Amino acid sequence: ALRLLAVEPLPDPIQLAFAPPEAVVLSEIEARRQGLARSSPYLRTALAGIEREMGVAALARAARGPDMDLSWLQTGEIDKRSWSFSVGLRLPLWNGGRPEVARAEAAVSLARAVLERSRLEISLAFEQAVKEAEMAEGTLRHLESGIVPAARKTFELVRLSYEAGETSLLDLLDAQRSLRAAEIEELSAGLALVRAWTEIDRISGRHDGVGEKR
User: Fold this and answer.
1) 150 vs 76, 135, 153, 154, 207, CA distance in Å?
2) CB 53 within 8 A of CB 108
3) If both were cysteines, with which of 13, 69, 72, 151 could 182 make a disulfide (CB 3.0 to 4.6 Å apart)?
4) Which tens digits make up the pLDDT trace of 92-125?
5) CA dist., res. 178 & res. 167, Å (int)
6) What is the pLDDT of residue 137?
7) Where are the alpha helices (DSSP H) in the chain?
8) At what angle do helices 26-34 and 169-204 cross, to 10 degrees?
9) How far is 42 from 45, CA to CA, in rounded Å?
């Protein structure tokens, strides 16, 4: 199936290579955590919303005060030329634009609430992704340093015993099945670590550093 889907010829036999992800760097995690408010695209969007609503509120408050217009007009004909100067003063009447100001200030308050909620959600999501990365790395290192080498060594010993006629084929297949199960768990832990780092990159809005190497 892989050969049919491949654009270029694949080697024979096909081998799948697996490079375990690098360790979780605590200094990198802390740097991401400290810079989360500046780098997260979600928080930047919320901050931009507050700035926009504050600008609208400032315009609404400015419209409540008197506004003066000055104009200067010069006209000329064949036999005469005239100049005119006018002054206009606009005064807010009735409620003086208070409803517009109230709506604009309410929008600012709502935008601030959205920002605080976004900060909490992003912080919780970031810490959850970090926790998953640490758990995946711990599982991966445990498999790499203990379970997988032990299963591989056991399989080699059983294989040698089988070739020497000291064990049965069922023992060999059982050892091989245990080794494959351990290797699959190792691959799954590595994939979980990559996914956790991908989530950390997405939340923090960064694609460099530790996460990029994976």
Assistant:
1) 103, 22, 5, 6, 36
2) yes
3) 151
4) 555 555 667 777 778 777 777 777 787 788 888 8
5) 16
6) 86
7) 2-5, 26-34, 36-39, 41-62, 98-142, 148-163, 169-204, 209-213
8) 30
9) 5
What values do phi and psi take at 194, rounded to 5?
-65, -40
Please state whether 8 falls in left (phi above 0), alpha (psi between -120 and 50) or beta. beta
User: What mean pLDDT comes out for the span 7-33?
Assistant: 74
pTM reported for the whole predicted model: 0.57
Residue 109: the pLDDT is 78
| N-to-C CA span, the chain | 27
Compute the Cα dihedral for 130, 136, 137, 138 and give only its sign. Answer: positive
Examine residue 99 and say whether the peptide bond preceding it is cis (omega within 30 degrees of 0): no
Q: Is the pLDDT of residue 56 over 80?
A: no
pLDDT of residue 62: 67
Nearest one of 90, 85, 58 to 74, comparing CA atoms:
85
**Residues 173, 185: Cα–Cα separation, whole Å:** 18
Token couple for 32: 């991401």
Report how far Cα 14 is from the mean position of its chain's Cα atoms.
35
Structure tokens at 18: 């697996």
Q: How far apart are CA 207 and CA 214, in angstroms?
A: 10
Name the nearest CA neighbour of 175 among 144, 146, 151: 151
